[in-house]
Amino acid sequence: MNNMNIWQQLVEQTQLRWGEVLEATFVHIQLVFFSMIIATILAVTLGIVATRVPWLKNIILGGTGVLQTIPSLALLGFMIPIFGIGVYTAIAALFLYSLLPIMRNTYTGIKDVDQATIEAARGLGMTNMQILFKVELPLAIPVIMAGIRTAAVINVGNATLAAFIGAGGLGDFIFLGITRGIDGLILLGAIPATLLAIVIETFFSAVERWTTPKGLRK
């Protein structure tokens, strides 16, 4: 099939399914959003714990690293007996895939804070908790945001696989296009997913830059 026919199919499918595309995009965003919220809270917490309890570092980072090696569809398969078919399984899998980038960057961001700055804070009489929340985390936020950005962009792509377990999203069009042999239908899911990833990448890049102290901006 030539390229002209593919784009004609895309136009036809868009006209027929425009409402469905908007609905699927909203579902896709929800899958990414909820998984990222849960992952960010837990991953930042575990990253902080890893900086405070050194012997837990390898356990925490190693355990989440193992999750990254599991293929996406296989991880969905592991989640199905626990959460069943549908949205909860997709969110759980996306949550697990989000942990490592955020946790690793939280750990790295805090550990990279200049020790002289920390000692100066102690000299001012700050407690460990005050140093964490008033010195270390504010300075580590740009690095943490980079981890969140990476996890969010990866999740936009992984969320397309939610279609295989009936969780909806833009992957529905890709899966339907493959099964029916309609290339335009595949693009109807692939193009919005790509644009969504670009929007999220741009948004978090801006937030990352905004949270970086002016003197450290490139």
Automatic annotation (TrEMBL):
rRNA-binding is among the record's keywords: no
GO CC, alphabetical: plasma membrane
Compartments, record wording: Cell membrane; Membrane
Keyword Membrane assigned: yes
Biological process according to GO: glycine betaine transport; transmembrane transport
Membrane-crossing residue ranges in chain numbering: 21-50, 70-97, 160-178, 185-207
ABC transmembrane type-1 domain mapped to chain residues: 25-204
Source species, domain of life: Bacteria
PROSITE patterns tied to this protein: ABC_TM1 (PS50928)
UniProt keyword list: Membrane, Transmembrane, Transmembrane helix, Transport
Residue runs in coiled coils: none
InterPro entries per the UniProt record, alphabetical: ABC_transp_perm/SBD, MetI-like, MetI-like_sf
Pfam families in the record: BPD_transp_1 (PF00528)
Bilayer topology annotation: Multi-pass membrane protein
Main location: membrane
Family statement drawn from the similarity comment of this UniProt entry: Belongs to the binding-protein-dependent transport system permease family.
Identification of the protein by name: Glycine/betaine ABC transporter
